[in-house]
Amino acid sequence: MSNRKNWILSIIGVVIVGAFLFPVYWMIITAFKTQTEIFQTPPTFFPKEFQLDSFITVIQGDVGQYFLNSVIISSLATILVLVLSVPSAYGLARFRIKGVQSMLLVYLVTQMLPATVVLTPLFIVFNNLGLLNTYIAPVLATATLGVPFSVLLLRTFFIGIPKELEEAAKIDGCGRLRAFLQVIVPISLPSIVVCGAISFFFAWGDLIFSITFNRNQDLWPLTAGIFNAVGRYGIEWNNLMAFTTISVLPVIIIFVLLQKHLVEGLVSGSVK
C-alpha cells in the first residue's frame, strides 16, 4: 500500500512539474522552428528540421548590448542589496533597537506592494536627482524591493546563530566587526547566496523600472529588448522565442551552479 501511494504521488509530481516546464519547452522548440511550421495545424511538438536562422538574426541584432546592460544592472543591484541587507539584518538580530517590530512590519508591507505603486514616486525622485537615463536608476529601484526581503530572511537566520560563537571569537582577540566578517558571514554564506540569487533573478527579470527610468534604448536590458522586439519584428515568433531563450539561459545556468547553496540556504533558514 505504501509503495502504491509513493507511485501515485510520484506520478502526480511528474505531471505538475511537466505542466510548469512545458511552456519553457515550447519556447525553446519554437525558436528552432520555421515560421511556417509554427503556424502548422496540428502543431508539431518537435521541430521537423532544426534551423538556427532565428538565433543568428537575434545575435546579429542588439542582443549583445541588451545582455551587457542586464548583467550590469543585475550585478550592481545584487551587490547593493547584499551590502545593505547583510549588516542591517545582523544589527536587527543582535542589538536591541527601539521600534524594531515596527521597522520589520514596514519591511513586510513593502513586499506586498506592486512595483507600479512605487514607480511614480521613484520617477520623481530620480528626475530631481538627475538619475534618469542611467544605470543607477533601475539599480536603485530594484534594490528598494530586494533589500527588505533579504533583511527579513537573513535576520531570521542570524537570530538562530549562537552568540557563543562571537564570544569565543572575542576571547581570541577579534572585535565585533572582525567576528562578524570572519565568523558570522562564512556561517551564513548559504543564506546570503540565496538572497543574492533572488535579488539577481528579480533584477534580471525587471521590465517596468528599466523602460520607465531609461528612455535611451542603449541602456535597456534583455527584458526591454524582448518588449521592443514584439513591435519591431511584427511578432516573428521564432525570432522572439530565440531572443527569450537567450535571455533565460543565464538564469538557468546560475541556478544549476548554485543549486546546492540555494537548497542549503533555504533549508537552514527554515530550520533556524
Q: Tell how many strands the DSSP assignment holds.
A: 0
CATH class of the largest domain: Mainly Alpha
Provide the CATH topology of the largest domain.
Answer: MetI-like fold
Sheet-strand content, in percent, reads: under 5%
Overall radius of gyration: 23 Å
Q: Tell me, rounded to a whole number, the average pLDDT.
A: 81
SSE sequence, one letter per element = HHHHHHHHHHHHHH
Structural class: mainly alpha
Helix content: over 70%
Q: What features would you highlight for this structure?
A:
272 residues, mainly alpha, MetI-like fold, 14 helices, 78% helix
Could you please describe the fold and organization of this structure?
The protein is mainly α. The protein has helices at 2-31, 35-38, 53-59, 63-94, 100-112, 115-129, 136-159, 163-171, 176-187, 189-204, 208-213, 222-232, 237-257, 259-271. The model has no long low-confidence stretch (mean pLDDT 81). Helix 4 (63-94) packs antiparallel against helix 12 (222-232) and helix 10 packs across helix 14. The protein has two domains: 1-51, no CATH class; 61-271, MetI-like fold, CATH 1.10.3720.10. Helices cover 78% and strands 0% of the residues.
